[in-house]
């Protein structure tokens, strides 16, 4: 479903150049759950941005169901994201002036779907927020806001869910619950999930863990055997 082919990427700032990826090739199959781990500043977020078509590689290709993202124009990329991707950010990124229901319905409203509200309501029920539909983000706890963000990312049944440290801004207990929810919903719907996390307990629950370090993406043989891992 996703194929990274000889992908290289760097940022240039003045005279300095930061290499993020150097000639990386990886395949991610449909339905797989893949965790991206690695030290701070190694480029995990940048990699997610590449997968979403929000950054362009310096060389190589990101293939999404055989389509090379770097050959698509802005509108084509926006359509692809709207129809096929759901994105969960660490800091929720909810619209403060919209209720939980309106936030969750947003991707379907944008797509002009008449059943936007019904579907959003059903999705909020699935994430356990059926009783908070009319609350604004400021009236919700961190874990509840993240559950609205997950509902919004999944409401249009995307093929690919990208999550950037979805449990990073939450206390341990809430983070673990959100991680389980995301993995559970993913297993139910069979979507492909690529998530960035520092939480090795969460990563170990995925099918594969890829570690980003020095511009290389290397497979962890067994998540449970990585030094900072805890048993699932
Ligand atoms: N737009 C940009 N221009 C220049 N440098 C950037 C830009 N975005 C990110 N960087 C640099 O690229 C490197 C990778 O950033 P990125 O956010 O992808 O890392 P990360 O692995 O997700 O980090 P963290 O785990 O701390 O969130 C960092 O050193 C960052 O300072």
Automatic annotation (TrEMBL):
It comes from Pseudothauera lacus. The lineage of its organism: Bacteria, Pseudomonadati, Pseudomonadota, Betaproteobacteria, Rhodocyclales. This is ABC transporter ATP-binding protein. Residues 2-232 form the ABC transporter domain. One of its GO terms (cellular component) is plasma membrane. It comes from the Bacteria. One of its GO terms (biological process) is response to antibiotic. One of its GO terms (molecular function) is transmembrane transporter activity. Signal peptide: none annotated. Belongs to the ABC transporter superfamily. Macrolide exporter (TC 3.A.1.122) family. InterPro entries: AAA+_ATPase, ABC_transporter-like_ATP-bd, ABC_transporter-like_CS, ABC_transpr_LolD-like, MacB-like_ATP-bd, P-loop_NTPase. The keyword Transmembrane helix applies. Keywords: Antibiotic resistance, ATP-binding, Cell membrane, Membrane, Nucleotide-binding, Transmembrane, Transmembrane helix, Transport. Pfam families: ABC_tran.
